[in-house]
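ARCHIVE CARD
Drawer: 12
Card no.: 0347
Subject: one protein chain, sequence and derived structure
Cross-reference: see card 0346
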Amino acid sequence: MGRLVYSMNVSADGFVEDADGEFRWSEPDEEVLAAINEATARAGTYLYGRRIYELMHVWETDPGAAGQSPESAEFATIWQQADKVVYSTTLDNVWTRNTQLRRAFDPDEVRAIVEAADGDVTIEGPTLAAHALRHGLVDVAHYWVHPIAVGGGLRFWPDVKLDLTLQRARSFASGVVELVYAL
């Protein structure tokens, strides 16, 4: 049985993008990307909302993304091998292999995906993750806090009370801090 892991890059004040929708400040350096690769390699399935999928599909559809660095190439390989489930009411189709499109979040289906998984299942995108958090499906929050306060935007955590138990904290030369909490 797998675990459902909520995973994202976050600003120090808790946002995944600023009020203008900007998130370039969260682009990881090679050291942080190596840590992301390490964590991502344990996941066999990614659950995405439409916006995250539209950002992430380049790891299969744009060879330039993988060509940025050895760590980028490794991430592209990991990403392409994983299964993906995209939740969207507006997408007509998906552009990558191993990818399924769902029109609605079904907590029972997500529970079944996680129970059947050999490894972790990640859920990315705060809007989609909020559904899973509200249904008590998330086992772990694994995120990278970047040393910037953006002052507003799309929040990482929804308005839900959660008891968190710190499992790991690790800092990087760039000032990024990796946090892993059990829920």
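Annotation on reverse: DSSP finds seven helices and ten strands in the chain. The longest helix spans residues 70-81.
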